[in-house]
Specification:
- The complex is a heterotrimer.
- Chain A has 14 helices and one strand, in the order E-H-H-H-H-H-H-H-H-H-H-H-H-H-H.
- By secondary structure, chain A is mainly alpha-helical.
- Chain B is an alpha/beta fold.
- Chain B folds into two domains: 179 residues; 127 residues, Nutrient germinant receptor protein C, domain 3 (GMP Synthetase, Chain A, domain 3, 2-Layer Sandwich), CATH 3.30.300.210.
- Chain B is globular, with a radius of gyration of 25 Å.
- By secondary structure, chain C is an alpha+beta fold.
- Chain C has 18 helices and twelve strands.
- In chain C, helix 5 packs across helix 8 and helix 10 packs antiparallel against helix 14.
- The chains are: A mainly alpha, B alpha/beta, C alpha+beta.
- The interface between A and C is large, with 45 and 47 residues.
């Protein structure tokens, strides 16, 4: 048997699917009413900034300091892990809220919110208990379904697309910056990525940057497709991709929306699992060894707390807060790494 | 794993089976709405079926329930209350607007159904010539009418079928609403004309070849079937594969938007006889001239009146949105002199 | 440590009789061979006195045979005659037990502390016949029988290289059942063979009547719906798996060989695939994959759609389902569960009943479940049709019958109680479960996940033999992923 360590490139489907989830299921905030032009520029800007930051981060941080961080033996490591846990759990809570609301939004006969949230968390917890290697493999299958669904959505919507629906705006710069500022420009999934026990120096930054770039391209294409079909309504809708799915049809086949919703639910479950994994890994480093069995219940409790916090916040602020929390967590990791390297 | 299973079992007991069963749902297949003096009149066409274990004999039977109200939701609620089951709109593919909507702005109705998640986004909208009372009499043949209307909406010919997602209702509705003709006696449904609305006000009726050209310009069809009367003779044309290419030459301030319609004439009869060789060239030129004339007539009632339903100004904005905005402010944008249309249909 | 035999024939005879109690089928006879007192021991029914007579006694009863000392007689029999004796003599009681229960005859010689063993097996067993399942259009029709030695010979006939290794060991405290481990020496990594050997040796079972008893000891402890070991009744399939670098385990008394490691994609492959044209074999495999997902998901999705998202049903079907639902007393998902339950009862009844009556079961089931129950309004036609279609799809992949049946019921419950979110969550759990399984270090979903070129050559599809033959495939070529994960 050829035994080998997993290359970080295998994490690409997992990262890509998790980062692209919000392109198809938007968080239930006030629509940004930005034209597709602004969306494309915004994604380009975000991707460039995040990739540059990631390259700088992976250049400065060593694998040994990350290993030290994960163990949580040092007080400084515990402080950083605590902040990562808060950041990841907040993002996980936001994901849970979005998934539950989306399911209620698309259902004619929705299940109770509590039951939906419980099912999502149960499925995610099971995935976390099987480990990130299993999640990586599952992500391969989900990624294939996701891309096939996207191709089907595009093919079924193109007949309704009109170039004349695309909008032009004079103050595109302001709209671009506004969309960027109030969006989720630094996803917490990238924090979870650095917590995985893989040698990140060997292709970790390449994998993360590729995933960020691919996800940004996906966001841009979906925004353009939505505007081609729906016109200026696309920016005003809560869930433009779901509207596209309801509109689309191929020959005699109509009503693909259920198929798309099924695939998107799988994507949301995977994303929830990955964020829960990040929270659990951070909590594991915080707890002493004899309490190791409590790391999953602890992570679930934190995620639920994050969900409550997210629901209580004003609309539109969850994404921004999450991004700032993630940014500061990355900063804390950088600081920790430089301190440990100076110390050694 | 045991904990997962126990938690799952606990949720099982919490849920119960709360979903409404199929038998308790009233399947709404079409909605009719009209302006009245007091507000709105609504009718819903509900399909029900008798309980039977013989699946082969099970079929839906239509019934019409009506109500009135000050606004659209109230009128619909009253109509729903005329029957006992839970209304189920997810199979609803038709929105029929009554006679009153040919005189008053249908924007409030279209906005209601255009809201996110209120209805299926491919809900087809048609105008009818029926009042609320006349519509209620159509219960006997309404199933066939709905079937016919759904077929029309789904066919590639389109007859200018209008989807609710296309409704632009800022400052009132602007666009072309097709008119669905049917009556309580006749169970067939046809679309031969459409009403052009300009900011909530019906301003013209578009029929025949003009309606088909409008559908083509709206991107809803690639086929044309026209009858051109020349003196005592009639030219009947069928075109397939029709496309309109647009090209902006020069800046919006000085340039011209060139539109070129091309396609293949598959059938050409002149005075009831098929056309060949030398006559076909002459006939084709005649057709092209006719279509060009039709275009400018359409432009006269839409673009010139700043009712750009065909999105022609988009091509000018694509060149320079700043210049186009300036022209719009100065009132020079919607000059028909900025458009140049040529028709190049070929007979093969 | 088993008791060693003594030099006294009488003592050995008494101890052997004590070992087997007063068994009526245990036969002993005192004879004199070449002037030495001997005792023949055998089990009637397992061994044949006529063969013993033909093989040995006839020769030794000839006039002129020399009288010998006991030790001389032993040496003469073991090394200097043409009598077909077993190469190893019995040194202890345990050896005697093993040989006698294998159907051989044991000859005790007074004055010698070892016993001579003759292959006089003459037991009744089922002959080599067509296997009961795994039918095929082309290829061999031979299936394994219940005797281990015959099964070994069937495989040996097909894999005629010197690389085929057969290891025999005993399992089962009360039955001392023989089992054999067969593998290709140069294709199987040593650590895999060692690992399996160790697990088999340490499997503490009171009795073993089938290879399935050993499966839990070879698989991971974690619960999974699917098995990472496979079974086959066909000798050509076993030989093919050996040539892929897998290990085949045979147990005496069972015609089912176990294959380790075993992957998910193998459930959808058959020997016929390799005899037919590649394009048709690929089509059949795709149909099987589709049948698997239909079997698992159809009923659950149908129930979920009909209850929670009926807008997906086409108009005409909607009325039929609604009419049927109104006319029956149970909710749709309870009906679906009831029909599944009834189908399982019918299947089990048909399996256990004697064949002459078994045919009646199908008739009764069709009449009662298919017709009378629907006419009486207890069940609705769409539900029965969905259940029947699901059952037919299950039969396309018989090796996955157990997980499909359980998963199908779970999906019905999930879809009927929770709706689409239940279906999605359970599907996610099933995918994660599949992805999390390893079969001896190799991911269970190989070569689909992690993706490998074999996925298109001999996984989901099958490539032409010209392409397959260019590169030898062995299981050891599949990547084993290690992960420093917590």
């Amino acid at each position: 048997m050829k035994y080998k360590n997993l290359p970080s490139a295998r994490l690409f489907p997992l990262l890509f699917v998790c980062l692209s989830a919000e392109a198809v299921v938007k968080p239930f905030t006030l629509p940004d009413r930005a034209p597709a032009q602004a969306a494309v520029w915004s994604e380009l800007l975000c991707a460039a900034a995040v990739c540059t930051a990631l390259i700088f981060f992976f250049h400065r941080v060593s694998d040994s300091s990350l290993r030290l961080l994960r163990t949580g033996r040092l007080k400084q490591a515990k402080a950083v892990l605590a902040w990562i846990a808060v950041s990841a759990s907040f993002a996980g809570g936001a994901c849970l809220v979005t998934a539950e609301r989306f399911y209620r939004y698309v259902s004619d006969e929705p299940t109770l919110s509590l039951i939906t949230a419980a099912l999502i968390l149960l499925a995610a917890t099971y995935a976390v208990s099987r480990g990130v290697l299993t999640m990586t493999r599952a992500a391969g299958a989900v990624c294939v379904l996701f891309l096939m669904g996207a191709v089907l959505l595009a093919a079924s919507s193109l007949s309704s697309a009109r170039l004349e629906n695309l909008m032009f705006s004079d103050d595109i710069l302001r709209k671009t910056l506004r969309r960027t500022a109030f969006g989720n420009w630094l996803p917490a999934e990238l924090l979870c990525f650095i917590l995985i026990k893989i040698p990140l120096k060997q292709g970790g930054s390449k994998c993360a940057c590729r995933a960020v770039a691919a996800s940004a391209a996906f966001f841009a294409v979906s925004a353009v497709l939505a505007e081609l079909v729906l016109g200026e309504q696309a920016g005003a809708l809560m869930q433009p991709m779901h509207t596209l799915a309801r509109l689309g049809g191929l020959s005699v086949f109509k009503r693909f929306d259920a198929l798309h919703v099924g695939i998107w639910l799988l994507v949301l479950l995977l994303r929830q699992a990955f964020l829960l994994y990040g929270t659990r890994t951070a909590v594991r480093g915080l707890l002493p060894d004899r309490w190791a069995s409590f790391c999953i219940p602890g992570a679930i409790a934190l995620t639920l707390a994050g969900a409550f916090a997210c629901s209580a916040l004003p609309q539109g602020s969850a994404g921004v807060l999450s991004s700032f929390a993630t940014l500061s967590a990355f900063g804390a990791v950088l600081l920790f790494s430089s301190c440990t390297e100076v110390g050694s | 794993m045991k904990i997962f299973a126990m938690l799952l079992l606990a949720t099982l007991f919490l849920t119960g089976c709360s979903a409404t069963s199929l038998g308790d749902r009233a399947v709404v297949k079409a909605v009719y709405l009209d302006h009245t003096e007091e507000g709105y009149a609504a009718s819903i066409v509900v399909y029900g079926c008798e309980p039977t274990t013989d699946a082969a004999s099970a079929e839906g039977k239509a019934a019409i329930y009506s109500g009135v109200g000050d606004d659209v939701p109230q009128a619909l609620a009253q109509a729903e209350q005329q029957q006992t089951k839970e209304p189920f709109y997810a199979q609803n593919g038709l929105l029929l607007l009554g006679r009153g909507c040919r005189e008053k702005d249908p924007a409030p109705i279209l906005s209601y159904f255009g809201e996110e998640d209120a209805s299926r986004k491919d809900l087809a909208v048609y105008l009818t010539e029926l009042s609320p009372e006349e519509f209620q009499q159509c219960e006997k043949g309404i199933s066939d009418v709905i079937r016919e209307a759904e077929r029309l909406a789904a066919s590639s010919g389109g007859r200018g079928a209008f989807g609710i997602h296309e409704a632009k209702c800022e400052d009132g509705f602007s666009g072309l609403l097709p008119v669905l003709r049917f009556s309580e006696e006749s169970s067939s449904a046809t679309v031969r004309s459409a009403v052009l609305f300009e900011r909530g006000v019906p301003c013209a009726s578009v029929e025949g070849a003009a309606l088909q050209l409008a559908s083509l310009l709206l991107g809803k069809t690639s086929e044309l079937t026209m009858e051109i009367t020349q003196g005592e003779e009639r030219l009947e044309v069928a075109v397939k594969g029709a496309t309109v290419r647009k090209n902006m030459s020069g800046s919006p301030a000085e340039g011209v938007l060139e539109l070129e319609l091309s396609g293949t004439i598959v059938s050409l009869t002149w005075g009831g006889k098929a056309v060949y060789a030398r006559e076909s060239k002459q006939a084709s030129e005649e057709v092209n001239r006719f279509v060009e004339k039709l275009f400018y007539e359409l432009v006269q009632i839409t673009f010139e009146r700043k009712n750009d339903i065909f999105g022609l100004s988009w091509w000018m904005k694509e060149q320079s949105s700043t210049q186009t905005a300036q022209l719009e402010r100065s009132g020079e944008l919607y000059d028909p002199g900025r458009l140049s249309f040529s028709c190049h249909l070929r007979y093969e | 440590m088993s008791e060693r035999l003594s030099a006294s024939m009488l003592e050995n005879k008494i101890r052997i009789k004590e070992l087997f109690g007063d068994s009526a089928d245990f036969y002993t006879k005192d004879v004199t061979i070449c002037g030495c007192r001997c005792c023949i021991c055998m089990f009637e029914g397992l061994s044949s006195i006529e063969r013993l007579w033909i093989m040995m006694l006839d020769i030794l009863s000839q006039p002129g045979t020399q009288t010998r000392e006991p030790a001389e007689l032993f040496d003469y029999l073991m090394r200097r005659t043409a009598i077909p004796l077993e190469s190893r003599s019995c040194l202890c009681l345990d050896d005697v037990r093993a040989q006698l229960t294998a159907g051989t005859s044991v000859i005790l010689i007074d004055g010698v502390d070892q016993a001579v063993v003759l292959s006089t097996q003459s037991m009744q067993f089922r002959s080599v016949s067509e296997p009961s399942g795994e039918g095929n259009v082309r290829g061999s029709r031979e299936g394994f029988t219940d005797l281990l030695r015959i099964n070994l010979s069937l495989v040996r006939r097909l894999v005629r290289t010197g690389e085929l290794v057969t290891e025999i060991m005993t399992v089962g405290g009360r039955t001392k059942t023989e089992l054999a481990m067969l593998y290709h020496r140069s294709l199987v990594p040593r650590e895999l063979a060692d690992s399996i050997r160790k697990k088999l040796r340490t499997a503490k079972l009171p009795f073993v009547f089938d290879t399935g008893y050993l499966a839990p000891f070879l698989q991971s402890n974690r619960f999974s719906f699917f098995q990472s070991v496979g079974y086959t009744e066909r000798s050509d399939t076993a030989a093919a798996k050996i040539c892929e670098g897998k290990i085949v385990i045979l147990v005496n008394g069972s015609p089912f060989a176990m294959i380790v490691p075993y992957f998910f994609t193998e459930n959808f492959a058959s020997m016929d695939d390799y005899s037919e044209k590649a394009y048709f074999a690929s089509l059949v495999r795709l149909i099987k994959y589709a049948a698997f997902f239909l079997a698992v998901l159809l009923q659950g999705v149908f129930v979920s759609i009909a209850t929670f998202t009926p807008e997906l049903l086409p108009e005409e079907m909607l009325y039929k389902v609604a009419a049927g639902e109104q006319a029956t007393p149970l909710p749709l998902f309870m009906e679906a569960l009831l029909v599944t339950f009834l189908l399982e009862i019918v299947r089990e009844a048909g399996l256990r009943l004697p064949r002459p009556i078994g045919h009646s079961v199908s008739l009764v089931a069709a009449l009662i479940v298919g017709d009378a129950a629907v006419n009486a309004g207890l069940l609705s036609t769409p539900v029965v049709i969905a259940a029947a279609l699901s059952a037919i799809c299950t039969f396309v992949v018989p090796s996955l019958y157990e997980p499909i049946t359980v998963l199908r019921s779970l999906f019905v419950l999930a879809g009927g109680i929770f709706g689409p979110i239940g279906i999605a969550a359970l599907l996610f759990v099933m995918v994660v479960n599949l992805c999390g399984m390893d079969s001896f270090g190799v991911p269970y979903l190989s070569p689909i996940e992690p993706p490998d070129r074999m996925m298109w050559d001999d996984g989901i599809l099958r490539a032409n033999w010209r392409k397959l033959a260019k590169e030898d495939f062995a299981v050891s070529d599949l990547p084993c992923e290690t992960w420093g994960d917590d």
